[in-house]
Amino acid sequence: MRPSRLTPIAVALALLAPAARAGSVTLPNKRTVATVDFERHVMGLFGRAGCNAGSCHGSFQGKGGFRLSLFGYDPGKDFLALTRDALARRVDSADPDNSLLLLKASGRIAHGGGRRFGTDSWQYQLLREWVVAGAPWRKGSGDVVAVRVEPAELALSKPGDGGQLAVFAQFADASEEDVTAFCDFRTNDDAVAEVAHLGQVKGLRPGDTAVVVSYRGNVVPVRVLVPRAAPPGFVYPDLPEVNFVDREVFAKLRRLNLVPSALANDAEFLRRVTLDTVGSLPSPDEVRSFLADRDPKKREKKIDQLLAQPLHAALWATKFCDITGNNTDALENPANLRPKRSQMWHDWFRKRVAENVPYDEIVRGVLCATSRDGLKPDEWLQQVKAVDAAAEKGFDTTYADRPSLDLFWRRQQAVPIDQWGEKTAAAFLGVRLECAQCHKHPFDRWTQADYRAYANVFSAVAVGQSPEAKRAIDAENQERTKDKKPNPNVIREVYIAADKAGGARAPLPHPDTGKPLTPKCPGGPEVRVARGEDPRLTVFDWMRAPDNPYFARSFVNRVWGHYLGVGVVHPVDDFSLGNPPSNPKLLDALAKEFLDHRYDLRHLERTILLSRTYQLSSDANATNRLDRNNYSHGTVRPLMAEVVVDVLNGALGVTEDFGKDVAPPNARALEVGSSRVANGNLAYAFRIFGRPPRTTACDCERALEPALPQKLFFMADPGVQAKLRAPKGRLQRLLAGTEGDAEVVEELFLATLTRFPTEREKELFAAHRAKTTDRSKAFADTLWALINTREFVLNH
Hints:
The chain is built from 29 helices and 16 strands. By secondary structure, it is α+β, with helices and mostly antiparallel strands. The strands form six sheets. The chain has a four-stranded mixed β-sheet with strand order 4-12-11-8. Strands 3-6-7 form a three-stranded antiparallel β-sheet, with no helix packed on it. The protein has a three-stranded antiparallel β-sheet with strand order 5-10-9, with no helix packed on it. A hairpin with a 5-residue loop joins strand 1 and strand 2. Helix 6 packs antiparallel against helix 19, helix 8 packs across helix 26 and helix 14 packs across helix 15. The chain is globular and about 100 Å long.
């Protein structure tokens, strides 16, 4: 077979020549392409067919000796890959049908990707016409200014109905074109709706989802609503609304014909709100008191009481430790102080949540932390010595009183500046940037240049010895050496370096040009500061500005996700074009309330907890039983690992031993800052119930999925069995008292399920008790059965 006649000279001419006129191609939507354009059409087809995906020719090593840029981010490289090697015959203008581009894609010769289309298809015809025209390329012809989808929202009438999406791209030359045939379509929930390759959508069951449309790296989400088919005579009920939360939630439910469940009863509400706010169960006496209370405002009063409890601050300190990566093993030496430093980290957050410090100020204390916080070197060293001396003796230190959390930046090993970009974007913006480290994010706007420009913000952040403090640090280390104290070189500080000689690190260059990249906020302004000034302050000011698209929204979404079980954006740290909010108006309203009240966390929580939406029963009705993300009923959800341990211990009436060097005495699991514990049984429980090691900047580290080891833990774990029969545990105290069988059963139900036993349950116990002569065994069996119910181990 003869080689292609597209010589290197022809390639050079093609780069300069305008697109040649070729035969027109009719697309499936009856639109005609008069002239095939490499960037608009050929590149679009490569993306639609998956040719430039990471699993195919877009991988770093390519496939079959042919490599395309990942997701088509570089048309120039792709054009040369197709045409520069005449002997490769990928494009043969003299004999178009002999081009490997067409032979392999049509399956006429072996192709690792299989047959992509037939010789009679529009795809084949389009590529062939481009080859016939001499494989031209007009540089920049496909530069996209905007992509829009019609309709912007697709509201179907009922399951089984369908609709068509049409996609239009506006290019830099001011032209606009229907590019539907060149787009990739995918649905975020294929149980609600399915979408075909050419944008035909079909509703499958009541609910809503997003169809994500991608054209050459430009991503547009389209909300698809599939209402429940209303039976004859159905009239949507009037729903009482407590606040704007209910207004936005119920407005969407009305569009979907989903009727929210009834309010949770008092016992269900009390259990849920106590677990959510303080990570424990109410005591039997608290349950009796709340159920007997006839005050119409008792729920409001209970919410206020719980939000003021110390364990509420401990719960959110634990969540903040997850978000900011409080990984004990990564902290500084000496090793015996690492758990203490983790506890200081936890205590720093706990103090601020307890004092209801505005959220933006909490973030400022983390993002812009320095070790000296404006102190003179000698004053700071005295502070360090006092904190370390207190940590050597126990867990009671003054670290939480510091203005900033320098431990966030102080690690054993130096953290690359790109990782600081990932950590801070995930923690405070809810944005995952890591994909853009190697290539443009496939379902978001971020490029490698965006990734590196944001990382460069942190090039001036140094951990070591600043020139100003070095003399004092050296003197202190000499004293430690003279006194034969261990680790004479552990004193380091977080500071802003003026230049490389002072500790600054080299900024990352532009991935294509190798030229320096100016630090830049993700999606925001460039960061230009004077030498020696802290660039993080500029980023922080941009973050907390009212028009920031991420900062307030990402945090209210985290709070909403905690209390409702599913974020408006879910996962909660994945704000991206390909993962739009399920209820944008709700998210906007929550963010506005948060901003209007100056980042008041307690007000935000109270607003959510008071809403009828939060207080709906978890018992679904016939209309909403399939709903998973519109909050039409309470979500049955697993507990945090720490809460599992605390709830189990509380039900059994025992305490936990975390180890004297791991946690403060008498601490609950929610109060433990360290990411690792010495107690092997406890470490196992933490692991199987998903407590994260805090090694990555991703909320996905905290696993909340059910697993068989969790069930076996409650059923047969020796530690649980020992706690169940502990001499000073709840069961033994009850059996040693004067209560009769009925009173003991009632107490056990209240302590585990936050409700009284039903008549049927009383009958079952009586039957078991009649067969068991050993009273202790009968009640141990009962308590064991209660802690092994789904009702006990799940929040609902």
